[in-house]
Specification:
Largest sheet: 6 strands, mixed
Helix content: 25-40%
CATH architecture of one domain: 3-Layer(aba) Sandwich
Order of helices and strands: HEEEHEEHEHHHEHEHEEH
Strand order of the largest sheet: 6-7-8-3-9-10
Shape: globular
Number of strands: 10
Structural class: alpha/beta
CATH class of one domain: Alpha Beta
Strand content: 25-35%
Length: about 250
């Protein structure tokens, strides 16, 4: 049986706190070509993520974790239910509208850095703004600002191959930030890094969170999840547990 929402989540769901993301009865079903059900990836999920929260999404393979991330990131649409992103319903938008919202509201950081080797770091960071039609001078200014935030302003004219793995991931974070998103989504962002470098990247996320950014991280690592404010675990498309993480408790003890 799925877990009941925590008292904190229930209070937020009542609408008294501003939400970066609000899911109401969200379902995602995949069908076979003949129309029969292949799998129910999400089974009516209710979840509220307040603005400024740092949340970990966990679950075994087949739990619905990747499906949830795709829906939260506006990479897919639910079969049923409602999804409000930064206060606006997005579940029924067409492809062009969904793409526009994704570019304006969501920043993505993946395990692979996905930097273009022929471009400088600054040019890589500018790419999302290029697709949004932002002018050249503003693109350069905002790229420089994002690189300063992650401590790479002295590497902006270097090529990716001239940077360490940790620096490349910081560049990928700067690219995710350049659009000034409502939510930063990170999918196993330390998976390609050694433990020391991975810790530095997690500290970068914590610094961003301290500035008020909403972060959603998918991870299988309990040690990483323990650094988040809140840990949501899925099982078979349902909410299995929703608890406070070590990050929230560490601040309470401070």
């Amino acid at each position: 049986m799925p877990a009941s929402p925590s008292p904190r989540a229930s209070t937020i769901a009542g609408g008294t706190a501003p939400a970066a993301a609000r899911l109401i009865g969200l379902k995602k079903t995949y069908f076979k070509p003949d129309g029969s059900v292949l799998v129910e990836a999400l089974r009516g999920l209710d979840l509220v993520i307040p603005r400024g929260e740092y949340i970990a999404i966990m679950g075994a393979s087949g739990s619905g974790k990747s499906t949830l991330m795709n829906l939260l990131g506006c990479l897919d649409r639910p079969t049923a239910g409602r999804y409000e992103l930064d206060g606006a319903a997005v579940e029924s938008l067409d492809d062009d509208e969904l793409s526009r919202v994704r570019g304006q509201k969501i920043g993505f950081v993946f395990q692979a850095f996905n930097l273009i080797s022929e471009l400088s770091i600054a040019e890589n960071v500018e790419i999302p703004l290029l697709y949004q039609g932002v002018s050249g001078p503003e693109r350069r200014d905002r790229a420089a600002e994002s690189l300063r935030i992650v401590g790479l302003d002295n590497r902006m004219h270097h090529r990716p191959r001239e940077l360490s793995g940790g620096q490349q991931q910081r560049a990928a974070i700067a690219r995710a930030l350049v659009g000034r998103p409502a939510i930063l989504m990170a999918d196993e962002p330390t998976g390609n890094l050694d433990s020391t470098t991975g810790k530095q990247i997690l500290e970068t996320f914590e610094e961003l969170h301290a500035k008020g950014l909403t972060l959603i991280m998918v991870t299988h690592d309990d040690r990483i999840a323990a650094r988040c404010e809140r840990v949501v675990r899925l099982a078979d498309g349902d909410l299995e547990s929703d608890r406070d993480g070590g990050g929230r408790m560490a601040r309470a003890d401070a």
